[in-house]
Specification:
13 strands, four-stranded mixed β-sheet, alpha/beta, five-stranded mixed β-sheet, 419 residues, 15 helices, single chain
């Protein structure tokens, strides 16, 4: 599951880079609305489930799965051993949580200040209008409790037509569900907090969102109304604020927005062409790099070609416990006792098994090498050699364990190469 998720994150980043490259020429060709819809491509790629395998079989180019299971009998409880990958995943998870908490606290603080300085001033197209000193321009706010915020000087600073068009802009945000998309984008940004590309993409996504809304306003406005709307944009210009809301006042994109208002044109052919192109890109993005393409064989068939190295440390006291093990995806192997109290190791399910005991009766290390599938001896020896070199530097094993394990692997490698 985690492998699928992180693989999707990688491919979603590829799609983000693609959208960042094509969004401006795409907007010139098809319009601001279809360009905004482009951001569905990386979002869908992030959540795309594994697809059934089809097409080119590339599984042979992938490394065979090598499972390393390290357990210690004689220590009560479970003593998990973490690799550097576990550490990176932990740092990533902490970063995700910290980012979401930071956004939530900022949002709650804004709502608290808003409650102390707001008053109702009517409605616009069925949406409540709330006046507050916390905003410098019109702003759409609320997922369920939807409303439009305006500054205290809104009536005095904007003409009647400018007010109508500015409020129409915010009403379109609510009607299109842009605030829901913003919250989804924040979640995706949280998952990619370490990725500079994601921060650039979020900024571009918000700019395209505003431009699409401007285009919707311009599409129903005449030449004079567009001039009024352009003046409303200039009057509202200020630095970006709350990222979960939809303000009218993104000053950094003002020049582009004014240019679009002046040159805006729309046609059904452009919209249809843009929609079909977005759908095609989404289909390609969802299928390309899918785990189903990378692993066309059933999971059971891939599992039949595995090397399992089970390392057990036996002590005279006979207490039992199990440590976590490491591989390409982390899981745990349960170590059971039989009816007579003897520890039962996982068997090889019909594969070739080599069982080695090292050390004295009071302190022995037991190494079980389990090979499944029709793997040639030379290939198996090569894989075990690679694993042996890695285990020789494994800080999760004691020096004595490393010595015993590498000795057992050396003997097995020599036997395989002598066949």
């Amino acid at each position: 599951m985690s492998g699928w998720f992180f693989q999707n994150m990688i491919w979603a980043s590829v799609m983000l880079a693609l959208v960042l490259i094509v969004r401006l020429p795409f907007a010139r060709l098809f319009g601001a609305g279809p360009a905004y819809a482009l951001w569905l491509v990386p979002a869908l790629r992030l959540i795309a489930p594994p697809l059934p395998g089809f097409g080119l079989d590339i599984s042979e180019a992938l490394p065979d799965l090598i499972v390393i299971e390290a357990g210690q009998i004689g220590v009560s409880g479970i003593n998990a051993q973490f690799s550097w990958i576990d550490g990176l995943v932990a740092v990533w998870a902490i970063g995700v949580a910290a980012f979401l908490v930071w956004q939530w606290l900022g949002y709650r603080a804004f709502l608290t200040r808003l409650s102390l300085s707001s008053r109702s001033v009517g409605d616009h197209r069925g949406l409540p209008l709330v006046e507050s000193a916390e905003v410098s321009g019109p702003l759409a706010l609320g997922l369920l409790d939807r409303r439009i915020l305006v500054p205290p000087d809104f009536v005095g600073r904007y003409s009647a037509e400018e007010q109508r068009l500015a409020l129409d802009h915010e009403a379109i945000h609510h009607r299109r569900g842009d605030l829901w998309w913003n919250h989804l984008a924040i979640l995706i940004l949280a998952l990619n907090w370490f990725n500079p590309l994601a921060w650039l993409a979020f900024r571009a996504f918000r700019a395209d969102q505003e431009l699409a809304c401007d285009a919707a306003v311009a599409g129903s406005a005449g030449t004079e109304a567009r001039s009024d709307y352009a003046r409303a944009l200039v009057k509202s210009a200020s630095p970006a604020g709350l990222i979960a809301a939809c303000p009218l006042n993104h000053a950094d994109q003002l020049k582009r927005r004014l240019k679009m208002m002046k040159n805006h044109s729309s046609s059904k052919a452009r919209l249809i062409g843009g929609g079909l192109t977005v759908a095609a890109l989404a289909a390609v993005g969802v299928t390309f790099g899918s785990p189903g393409l990378a692993h066309p064989h059933p999971e059971g068939e891939r599992e039949q070609r595995t090397e399992r190295i089970i390392i057990m440390n036996h002590k005279a006291d006979g207490a039992a416990g199990a440590a976590g093990h490491r591989e390409h995806r982390e899981h745990r192997t349960e170590i059971r006792r039989g009816a007579n109290g003897e520890v039962q190791l996982p068997d090889c399910a019909g594969g070739e098994r080599t069982d080695v005991n090292e050390g004295t009766d009071g302190q022995r290390t037991r190494i079980v090498l389990c090979s499944q599938g029709n793997v040639p001896a030379a290939e198996r020896a090569q894989r075990l050699q690679s694993t042996r070199d890695r285990l020789a530097n494994d800080s999760g094993l004691s020096a004595e364990q490393r010595q015993r394990v590498t000795a057992a692997l050396d003997r097995e490698i020599a036997r395989l190469r002598g066949q």
